[in-house]
Amino acid sequence: MSNPGSQTPKVFISYSWTSESHEEWVIGLATDLQESGVEVVLDKWDLREGADKYKFMERMVTDPSVKKVIVVCDRLYAEKADGRQGGVGTETQIISPELYEQVDPADRNQKFIPVVKEKDEQGRPYVPTYMKGRIYIDMSDPKAYSEKFEQLLRWIFDKPLHEKPPLGKSPVFIIDPNKPSLNTTAKHRFALEALRLRKGADAALRDYFDTFEKNLKNFRIQRQEGKEFNDQVVESIEDFLPYRDEAIEVFLALARNPPEEAYRSLNHFFERLLGYSFPAPTPGVVTTDWDEDNFKFIVNELFLYAVAALLKYERFEGVRDLTEQEYFSPHRSGMLPFF
Description:
The chain has 13 helices and 7 strands. The chain is α/β, with parallel strands linked by helices and 339 residues long. Strand 6 and strand 7 form a beta hairpin.
């Protein structure tokens, strides 16, 4: 069943009448595609007695409404295509010029794809010579049919499993080396990958959180003459935005697949961050209650995003651990709630 409002893709299947069992396999593939929202043109269904089969083949390959052509490759198909024999040979003569005349053979939007149904004794696919340079879908193993069928569907609908992510902004520390940096970019990526694969996630999280907390001092405001302190606070918060967004990605990934020590790591992370809101007194340095305003904003905002991420994935036990926990600050006496 096709998606409402979307154009139903139309596909032609080219194959060889190798054997009755092979034809049944092709019909089964066509049926599965048809039931998955793909309009399939197949000679068994669409070519009637008295029709010109060569005209039918030519029309199906050159018809602009046919967006994709599946070439089912087995030994006999490859031999007939290379020898230009029979109906397969005729289709080869029609397909090969279109294949060669494509403006960009490396473009992702290809019209023709080899689907390998048979391999030789050395495990090499039977593919016609004119298609040997093409990336194929291997459907020769019946056990992998479901996986390869999904791959074929994704090719037809142009929905690959691995999509290229949108181009992001250049890192602030690259564009302006004078801007403060947490140096967490690589550790952020490792943490996300570990959480996705569920391998070494606790260690990757601790590594990311440790680096984040230690380098947050780089955002400490140094008062500048002739510049309003409030403006410096706003500038500091704006400079921190890329790292806030990194942290949000980690919170969401953690909430989606929380590893064993996830909530404890979060607790310890925010406990350490509290030290930036309540810094240790420095001998000979006069400080005011608002000197750490940028840190107070940054840390509280991170805490709210962490809670929001846990709520999004209904990790209520994690929310409870964060909000009911009392946090220790070495610069304030006793234990205190986060807010």
